Here is the input.
Amino acid sequence: MISNTQPRYEILSEESMAVLDRGWRRIVSEIGIEFLLPEALELFAAAGQRVVENNVFLDPDFVLEQVAKAPSSFDMQARNPANSVTIGGSNMVFGAVYGPPFIREGFERRNATLRDFENLCKLSQSFSQLDSAGGTICEPDDVPLDSRHLDMVYTLQTLTDKIYMGSVTSAENALDTIRMGEILFGGREAIERTPVSISLINCNSPLRWDDRMLGAMFSYVRAAQPVVLTPFLLMGAMSPVTVQATLCQQVAEALAGIALAQLVRPGAPVVFGSFLSNNNMQSGSPAFGTPESALGLLCTGQIARHFKLPFRGGGALTSSQTVDAQASYEALMTLMPTFLAGTNFVMHSAGWLESGLVSCYEKFIVDIELLSMLQAQFKPFEITEASLAYDAHVEVGHGGHFFGCAHTLENFRSCFYRPLLSSTDNFERWKRLGGEDATSRATTIYREKLESYQQPLMDEAIREELAEYVTRRRSELGD
Here is the structure.
């Protein structure tokens, strides 16, 4: 977790915010939002909202009353207290890639396995730039579908000691995540007092929250575990083809979901989520690392702050099929506005490739380098009398050099950013050392990190109880 205290890059005028406000109000009150879970409809009806079949027509002022109940920030406890975080305010919390079914390792693209999931957990644990391995870092295809969420949560809990994300594919899977959190942290009271898992609840855009996601959301919110309520918006498919219209839809969907969470449990910790990019209008395929997604990020940060909510967005996103220049510049095109917007919870910070279809080992290392540089760039910056190094000028004088002066000797080890991946060797030295490009060097780095990985210590009785729970639930699920 870093504290980003630099000024936010806000591009929406007061007039634009006012137009946006009128727009989302029209959507929720005149078009309505669909909720495909009967219990959600019952809660809205009991709160005086007009319900027609699955469609809820929301009073905008009622929505704002509910949203105001959500905290502007909240704490999360990690197994290692040094890795606990606060989400909100000036804080930025970073997690690895989430969701891909495939893995890329060198030139090989294949289905993801549990071993890959374990390896990505180990890499996430090994780099301080990440505050979380995330959740579904990849979708392991070699374990049964009905019970693989148990394997993933167990792996996150045992191979890392950072915060983790829960399963959201059903209410029952969410309950498994909650129960495993209770085992790890000492009971329901302990996890309700300070949450231990955070989970992604996606809107089935446009304007629909489906029953599976809502079922998981209800489970987590009742247990006081934070949820990231995220409209899934690819312009041209799930929203209109302009950033302005998409922002309006995003506000309507996100605030409706947040209002529901507050009906379930007033004061429940939530995150205003944003997953906003566009489609290629020639091919229909998703496009990432675009100027439009960058604009959306900057605007979303400003909008979430307007509602006094922590927000999620951005990451190291790319449409590239391999770890090349495109993968790097598109990742930076999304990561830079992520920092400029002051994003509080950042998913997909490392390892995302091929429009989110692939988790990639080499891209993971490239993204860690990008993340590390930006974290250094956005550290608090001050100018003090001591920082002006006046004595160095006195010592060196006119026309000299500073390599050997006292100020340099005192500070040379820590004065500049030292890259993990980048090479600054001259051509002759670079060639003599093998002439490797960044992707090749990334392969060496991730392999070395996996070889040197040390599993964080855990109470053996707790580990056994978790393993027994996984074994029992797998049997109950028929796997």
In short: The longest strand covers residues 227-235. Residues 243-264 form the longest helix (22 residues). The radius of gyration is 23 Å.
